[in-house]
């Protein structure tokens, strides 16, 4: 047992930088991102630039796993410098669908506020 040697399957493993563009709305979002990434193995440091909406991760990690961990908190996260895929964004939704969505969301928020004000009344 003492004469066993650990041999790496791949060649030389080095730490890498993973840069992502992440929509950050407040400094609480920054804390969420840092906490989500702190649970991944091999991450040495996480730097969040609130002004540029940029998250830089340094460590021995798979960049797709890092992006998946961030997307659990912020769905619109993507790699820095990557083009936005087709079908994602404001222009992909037709005007009447956007209007319907806003009406439904407004009705949901009103119902939710009424439930907070009058918890005993069933709507």
UniProtKB/TrEMBL annotation:
Tell me which Pfam families the record gives: HMA
Report the source organism.
Leersia perrieri
Among PROSITE patterns, the record links this protein to: HMA_2
Lineage: superkingdom: Eukaryota
Q: Name one GO molecular function term.
A: metal ion binding
* The protein's name in its UniProt record: HMA domain-containing protein
Supply the Gene3D superfamilies for this chain.
3.30.70.100
The UniProt entry, under InterPro entries, shows: HMA_dom, HMA_dom_sf
Domain annotation HMA: ranges: 15-78
Task: List all membrane-crossing ranges.
Answer: none
UniProt keywords (A-Z) are:
Metal-binding
